[in-house]
């Protein structure tokens, strides 16, 4: 058996919530490679996912600016080493000036931000001056801006703690739809802040990613079924598909034919099949898109109406307004997202970004 340090086992346990012995076995099987060990645990159904949020070591703020006419909006993330500095007046002024520059110039890259002027110097120099004044490393980590193209609006939301922000671009065809879209976009921004969709649509998920996640999701459900069986609870249905991209026309036709055969076998009058089938097909799609429900904005069930996905909410609003309402762009920043602390040293991570 490979010699696995206790600290590495502890780290894997914190990342995955798996048992200590399961973590040790995973590390042994993967020769101490922690990333492979995470995947090993997921494929065995012993970890729902690597808990990246538990590995985030950053402080700072996410800030959102939205035009009064909803024609454009911007979002920024600025990291500091400590929460104490994030509450410092000098830091707050830095955030305000940075947000203003990004918003006014509709910037979407750090490189373009560094070329801007602020207080008679380039932004990069201005940032270094503030780092010296504050006495702590500061990083403008991400910026993004959305602007209306044609008939549409952009709205945004930042959570009260300043740690999560969202922008959504939405288009319509009738000017009379604008106010309704402004409100809907804001509500969907709030949904996204809470539910953490990673992308807008299933079309952004690669087939390789879907197949890899399918192994983990099925293993997770089977593992939960073991516990449910012990407790006498209803079991999860193990899906054959997990994303809408897998539900081709031939798959949907075959499922409908199967459901028709089931109705016939049950002796249901053929005259009422067309009333029963839509609901059954809708249930099949819901059961076969678990990955979309976890990772995509359009595939998630809406927190304000959990009977409908965001895509279905947009369809319903389109019918209500006699218009075609679409989400065209989606941006979500969560403070420290993707920064993984391995030796409790965020300062080193920030310093590395600044080189």
TrEMBL record:
Pfam families associated with the record: EF_TS (PF00889)
Main location as per UniProt: cytoplasm
Domain of life of the organism encoding this protein: Bacteria
Keyword field contains Isomerase: no
GO cellular component, one term: cytoplasm
Domain Translation elongation factor EFTs/EF1B dimerisation residue range list: 73-225, 239-337
GO MF assignments: translation elongation factor activity
Location of region: Involved in Mg(2+) ion dislocation from EF-Tu: 82-85
Subcellular location: Cytoplasm
Gene3D superfamilies (UniProt xref): 1.10.286.20, DNA helicase RuvA subunit, C-terminal domain (1.10.8.10), Elongation factor Ts, dimerisation domain (3.30.479.20)
The keyword Nucleus appears for this protein: no
Protein keywords: Cytoplasm, Elongation factor, Protein biosynthesis
SUPFAM superfamilies in the cross-refs: Elongation factor Ts (EF-Ts), dimerisation domain, UBA-like
Functional description taken from the UniProt entry: Associates with the EF-Tu.GDP complex and induces the exchange of GDP to GTP. It remains bound to the aminoacyl-tRNA.EF-Tu.GTP complex up to the GTP hydrolysis stage on the ribosome.
NCBIfam families: tsf
Family according to the record: Belongs to the EF-Ts family.
PANTHER family: ELONGATION FACTOR TS, ELONGATION FACTOR TS, MITOCHONDRIAL
Protein name: Elongation factor Ts
Organism from which the protein derives: Helicobacter jaachi
